[in-house]
Amino acid sequence: MKYSQLTFDDPNNKEIPAHLRRDQIISKLKENFDFESTHLRSSTSSTEGVLSKCHGYEAPNQAKDLGIYPYFREIEAMDGAHVTIGGREVITVSTNNYLDLTHNPRVIEAAKQALEKFGTGCTGSRFLNGTLSLHKQLESDLSHFLKREDTIVMSTGYQANQGTIACLLGRKDIAFSDRENHASIYEGCAVAAGKTVRYRHNDMDHLEYCLKKYPGVEGKMIITDSVFSMSGDIANLPGIVKLARDYKATVLVDEAHGLGVIGEGGRGVTSYYHLEKEVDIYVGTFSKSMGSIGGFVSAHPRVTEYIRHKASAFIFTAALPPASVAGVNAALNLMIEEPERIQRLHDNTTYMKKGLFDMKFQINNNPIPIIPIKIGDEALTLYFNQLLFDNGVFAGVAVSPVVPPFNAMIRTSYTSAHTQADMDHVLNTFKTIGTELGIIPQ
To answer: Is 140 part of the annotated catalytic residue set?
Structure first.
């Protein structure tokens, strides 16, 4: 049964309180989609081998049968803040292309020239035969832009975190990691020989409590996202830096969602708080504001030289392709030359946050263009997301275990490309659906 075929008791009867209509919808959805049992607790049998968990995993099929499966939508065309899916153009609020640089003519031309000169790939790792003059130029330009001493360009932002953390944390070292850090940070900590201690999200008292428990440990590293990708929260970097100084810890900051978004010239949260010299390792990605793919690590030359020769994720991975490198370099130059892109991004962020706040949605209050809309129940969140799509809005969705159970959210993000008409349509759509489902008051 498709979600559109579900029947409710007078769902449009305005005398029925919205929250009761919402509860009725959830109940009907759960008759057809048991999220907790099929996704979080998919059946396994030790007697049926390793692949038994795969055959017992029913959550995607249940969501597809119901018509509320939100993942792997096939994008057929892209134009600024609009994408075409299933032959229909919709407004995307599910993108990290913050500065609208992915389709910029200068970026595309730079990528074309690199493609013609160097071909489609490097056919090897940076360590052996894959380092091009393009890589070295981008590393130099990034170092100059960020006012840091040296930079390594890697194939993905994921590998930049994983490879750096895994090779720096020795057996006797400890990483102190925010509980909402990106999966690449968790992966790096898991692969590393050292111990990992997770502190409560942005909780400096808990971080200090954790640091105090290991007074005899020499090698301590505090690791944090600068902007947390799900919540859109900004890390309490001043508090982290102070504790790092007090307890003699190294600081690694992942500026994936900070670069190009916040700080002087888009240099990130480290710049926003004027703590450039206090952060030991600056990690970033090219898949957000730079509109491409890849990652980088900036640090003292002795640190970067060690990573170049010790990080398995860097040494044993093919180098970032020439077209991507050249495109990123052009995007970096455009970001520097056209600061109005960041200003438009800030203006759009302010407009959307005010609009959603006025509707009584619970949202974060900062200049970050990530705006999560908490719905709660997982099935209802997928249903809400499908209604958005039906009404021309392509949004992201986050459910457990990415977020805690019953804290599912619609994850929206905005760019400098969104027009007034785009944003008004998104706001009106959220208001209509949010009211109908009892998420916000009438």
So the answer is: no
